[in-house]
Inverse folding.
């Protein structure tokens, strides 16, 4: 009975998202804090139609995933993700994270022009209507220059969000990577139109793979 209820709920949301042009209303609440290499904890809740999904996780604790239908809990899973990673494998340095970001950038560039992809993602804002945004964020990075650049971008974002609520940003000028904050967001999404836009973008902008010139062997006479 439990799995039938879950399957029906997922099928209904998937069907609506795939075929309807009407918007779906999402409500999202999130709270978290942490310091790089030390303690961290997050809690997230999402509600759409009659479905509510909540997730909570913290360092050295079991994660919890819950599903509610019509306000009644029908599913709970803990822990999430199987066996925890070994301590030596779970710690990354700041330079390693930068290297991973560069590799991700290169992977995107192999398939799409990054500028075109960014413009497409920004243009999707026409398929999303923000109704409410309240939150605050306090953060710091080991690099003062990075902290300053992020502060400028976040203050600009806070100004743009003024018609919808209040977003407070507090940069901290210390040489550690840490952050804490909470957010309360409500928005409407047009998933069918977004899916159609994505299909059109992929067909119009995907790069065909080509063999490097050095690997092309001329035909023998």
């Amino acid at each position: 009975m439990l799995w039938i209820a879950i399957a029906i709920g997922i099928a209904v949301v998937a069907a609506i998202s795939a075929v309807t042009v009407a918007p779906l209303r999402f409500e999202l609440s999130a709270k978290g804090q942490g310091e790089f290499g030390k303690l961290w904890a997050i809690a997230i809740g999402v509600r759409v139609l009659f479905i509510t999904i909540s997730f909570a996780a913290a360092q050295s604790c079991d994660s919890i995933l819950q599903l509610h239908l019509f306000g009644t809990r029908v599913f709970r899973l803990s822990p999430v993700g199987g066996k925890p990673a070994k301590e030596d494998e779970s710690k990354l340095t700041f330079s390693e994270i930068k290297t991973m970001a560069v590799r991700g950038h290169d992977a995107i560039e192999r398939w799409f022009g990054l500028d075109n992809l960014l413009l497409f993602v920004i243009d999707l804002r026409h398929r999303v209507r923000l109704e409410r945004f309240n939150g605050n964020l306090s953060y710091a990075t080991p690099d003062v220059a990075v902290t300053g650049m992020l502060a400028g971008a976040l203050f600009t974002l806070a100004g743009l969000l003024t018609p919808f609520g209040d977003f407070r940003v507090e940069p901290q000028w210390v040489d550690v990577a840490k952050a804490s904050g909470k957010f309360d967001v409500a928005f409407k999404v047009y998933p069918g139109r977004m899916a159609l836009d994505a299909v059109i973008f992929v067909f119009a902008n995907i790069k065909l793979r080509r063999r490097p010139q050095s690997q092309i062997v001329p035909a023998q006479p």
About this structure: The radius of gyration is 22 Å. The mean pLDDT is 78. Residues 211 and 217 are 11 Å apart (CA to CA).
